[in-house]
Specification:
Elements (H helix, E strand, L loop, with lengths): L14 E4 L6 E2 L13 E3 L3 E6 L5 E7 L1 E13 L4 E9 L2 E9 L4 E3 L7 E2 L28 E14 L2 E2 L7 E4 L3 E6 L6 E6 L3 E6 L14 E4 L5 E6 L6 E6 L4 E5 L4 E6 L7 E6 L6 E5 L3 E6 L4 E7 L9 E4 L5 E6 L5 E6 L9 E4 L7 E6 L4 E6 L4 E7 L6 E8 L6 E4 L14 E5 L4 E5 L7 E10 L3 E10 L13 E2 L7 H5 L8 E2 L20 H14 L9 H43 L1
Parallel strand pairs: 2-12
Antiparallel strand pairs: 1-38, 2-38, 3-4, 4-5, 5-13, 6-7, 6-11, 7-8, 8-9, 9-10, 14-15, 15-16, 16-17, 18-19, 19-20, 20-21, 22-23, 23-24, 24-25, 26-27, 27-28, 28-29, 30-31, 31-32, 32-33, 34-37, 35-36, 37-38, 39-40
Helix pairs in contact: 2-3
Length: 596
């Protein structure tokens, strides 16, 4: 009888590798604040890093790419009829390819480029975007009889890396250290930040990055009485933001109006460690210092599931929703051993799987790839990244591999799938120089291809180091099993629709032809008049039955109470001013009599 010894999985050979030093970000003063957040957020356009700053809190926003002119030397050879375009950049990645000129004078180049036809025996240079003419050159060491050559200037996107100057502009509007940042999934130029100054700020980043320090946020959200350590955008609804603070309060905001729509009070009796939305944003999962996991319906303001002592250790826990609704947690045992567990929210009595890892004391930060069902664990202070695959087969949580390095990590950023170049194929190359130009030729037979499936940004003491996760594949074609349709940048719902009770899954996009970012619309904040809102809420409460309380009535009633308090204070001040006026008039009368 056949017995399978090795589990079949396309992710068994996931391999992590750091990029070269010239592709890292150096001389970054990463924040030293004692808070267990990732300190880094990444999207397809920018990487944001919380840094040390005097006189308040700040974070860097670095563009991943910039436009730069690239000079290409195009050579047409007589012997093998080939057009060589070395050093061509595409989407910020260096591509080396050779275009063959066939008898019908059609050039076929990189698989992403369409063929270019030439009507004349010698290709006119203007046909490929250059107004300069061809000119004869010597063959050099190429071994061919080179007859024509022309230099092109093409504008391309190139990676922005290297040393970050100390005077580089920052986002610096907070008066206390920044604790957490999160990019909006529906607008790559909008980022939210929470700080020790008890505020949440939402920022609009210029399209090409910061040229000057940014100190004026698009909107300031005030509602917490203690520091705000968690900010998280809704995965499918536009302009819906969640914040959690050390006042044990969770607030769900409508960023478009600057209002606190939902206040989850009296649900947590101790500090909140983590908050995570589920796949469509209908539920949230929280962990707190009281060792409880809670699944909450925020619009009903109701705890649907609660588990006490999910991990018995005193160190912080983390919990995330998986795409199938299960909950993945990290924590510590009573003996301070780090653990991972998988839970079914329908039955939280016992975990589906529970594994002990090691005895380190660093908090494990989980990063989940919903397209591949792979969970990456990055421990603060560790120098490694573990990754696991979650399946329906026992033991359900399968260890894949570990990426290890020498330097410990202080934080980690995770790139969304749409920010990856899925067509990138790592190929062994050889370089040679003809005395004038550095040529690159592809070794045509023996390839070593690695398909990029995930990308991390590891924060060290004074450095941000990108780490790529790859899977070996024999073909350089698009891999449907590695790159299923993934969540795109379009919102499935507007904020008002979600607050009214509607749900929608993320709008998926295909990565087969690569992700092309569209034009991001500016964040517009239209704050409502509290007086108009007061009348609207009164009508809503009168029309609603006792069992049909509107979801937004609680914050509106709070606003009404604040308004009444302000009006009362104004009346008191008016009475005080009136009494002082009488007293002043009486004193003036007495002075006039003395003068007489």
């Amino acid at each position: 009888m056949f017995r399978r010894v090795v589990r079949q999985s396309k992710f068994r050979h996931v391999f992590g590798q750091a990029v070269k030093n010239d592709q890292c970000y150096d001389d970054i003063r990463v924040s030293r604040v004692t808070w267990d957040s990732s300190f880094c957020a990444v999207n397809p356009k920018f990487v944001a890093i919380i840094i040390e700053a005097s006189g308040g809190g700040a974070f860097l926003v670095l563009p991943l790419h910039k436009l730069a002119a690239t000079k290409l030397n195009c050579v047409w050879t007589e012997s093998n009829c080939c057009l060589i375009l070395p050093n061509l950049y595409s989407n910020g990645l260096l591509l080396h390819w050779r275009a063959l000129l066939t008898e019908d004078f059609t050039i076929y180049g990189h698989s992403e480029l369409s063929p270019v036809s030439f009507p004349e025996p010698f290709p006119p240079c203007a046909a490929i975007g250059c107004e300069k003419g061809w000119g004869p050159v010597d063959s050099g060491s190429m071994g061919d009889s080179v007859v024509l050559m022309c230099a092109l200037d093409i504008l391309n996107q190139v990676e922005v890396t290297g040393r970050i100057d100390k005077s580089y502009p920052t986002v610096c509007g907070h008066t206390g250290p920044v604790l957490d940042i999160d990019w909006c999934p529906h607008n790559d130029q909008v980022i939210a930040s929470g700080s020790e100054d008890c505020t949440v700020m939402v920022w609009q980043i210029p399209e090409n990055g910061l040229a000057l320090p940014l100190s004026e946020p698009a909107v300031v959200l005030e509602g917490h009485s203690k520091r705000v350590g968690i900010v998280s955008w809704h995965p499918t609804a536009r302009n819906v933001l969640l914040s959690a603070g050390c006042d044990n309060l969770i607030i769900v905001w409508n960023v478009g109006t600057g209002e606190a729509m939902i206040n989850l009070e009296d649900m947590h009796q101790d500090m909140i460690y983590s908050v995570c939305w589920n796949h469509n944003g209908s539920l949230i999962c929280t962990t707190s210092k009281d060792k409880k996991i809670r699944v909450i319906d925020p619009r009903k303001e109701k705890i649907t599931v609660e588990k006490d002592k999910a991990h018995e250790g005193a160190r912080p826990m983390r919990a995330i929703f998986l795409s199938d609704g299960k909950i993945f947690t990290t924590g510590f045992s009573r003996m301070s051993e780090r653990q991972v567990a998988l839970w079914n929210p329908q039955n939280m009595d016992e975990p589906i799987a529970l594994h002990e890892l090691d005895s380190s004391n660093g908090v494990l930060l989980p990063f989940y790839d919903p397209d591949t069902n792979v969970v990456y664990l990055c421990g603060k202070g560790d120098s490694s990244i573990r990754y696991f695959e979650v399946t329906e087969e026992t033991p359900y949580v399968h260890f894949l591999n570990t990426y290890s390095s020498k330097e410990p990590q202080r934080g980690m950023g995770y790139m969304p799938k749409r920010g990856l170049d899925v067509n990138k194929c790592e190929i062994s190359r050889s370089h040679f120089n003809d005395g004038n130009t550095d040529w690159t030729c592809i070794q045509s037979q023996k390839f070593k291809r690695q398909k990029l499936i995930d990308r991390f940004y590891k924060l060290q003491e004074r450095k941000c180091e990108p780490i790529i996760m790859t899977v070996p594949r024999k073909s350089d074609l698009f891999q449907d099993d590695l790159y299923p349709d993934t969540a795109g940048p379009d919102a499935a719902l507007e904020a008002e629709d979600w607050f009214e009770g509607k749900n929608a899954d993320p709008i998926l996009i295909s990565l087969k032809h690569g992700y092309i970012p569209g034009k991001n619309r500016d964040l517009k904040v239209v704050k409502k008049n509290f007086l108009d809102n007061k009348l609207a809420v009164k009508k809503k409460v009168e029309n609603a039955g006792p069992g049909n309380k509107p979801a937004s009535s609680t914050p509106s009633i709070q606003n009404e109470a604040k308004l009444d308090e302000i009006l009362k204070e104004i009346r008191t001040l008016k009475d005080l001013i009136g009494s002082q006026d009488k007293r002043v008039a009486k004193l003036e009368e007495q002075m006039s009599k003395i003068a007489i």
